[in-house]
Write a structure and sequence with these properties.
By secondary structure, the protein is mostly helical. The chain is 74% helix and 0% strand. It has helices spanning 4-8, 15-24, 29-40, 43-59, 69-88, 90-94, 99-102, 109-116, 118-128, 131-142, 147-154, 158-185.
Length: 188
Amino acid sequence: MSSPVQGKGSDVLDPQDRMRFEQLVLPHLDAAFNLARWLLRSRADAEDVAQDAVLRAYRFFLSFHGGDARAWLLQIVRNTCYTWLEKNRPVEQMTEFNEELHTTTSVSPESLAIAGNNRERLTRALESLPARQREVIVLRELEGCSYKEISTITSIPIGTVMSALSRARRQLQVALSNPARQEAAHGL
């Protein structure tokens, strides 16, 4: 027999479940937006997708049976982001960054100014990573997730998480050291 809540529709939680949702899920809204921002690389798109993901989490909260609410929410955010990317940017999803193809040789004053700003350099370096590497490094280094949590969120084995994280760190190091070498060569 169906519960009274189910009879009202899946969008309605009883007051006790709503309070539980607010206590368990809402504290992780910043992490949800942050993950969406790094996966989509657009603040406006991330706001929309994060909001959609939180609505999905609310709608399906009755299927959450405890555990790590943050990992559960971030998994919904991740899945919502990839669904959005498939619909709105199908080519970008399949194209991984290739340093040989995407390296620019001309140095403009604007790019030198950007390179001087450490935060902007880090942002650009993170955005240059392939999607899987970017998501694992954001989850680990910016959101502080454990390997196990990342594995749960991304639905990939822990060993793959560790190797993707290792490759991401290596690529970040290269991306961050190359502009510094270029600046040193130009006397900046």
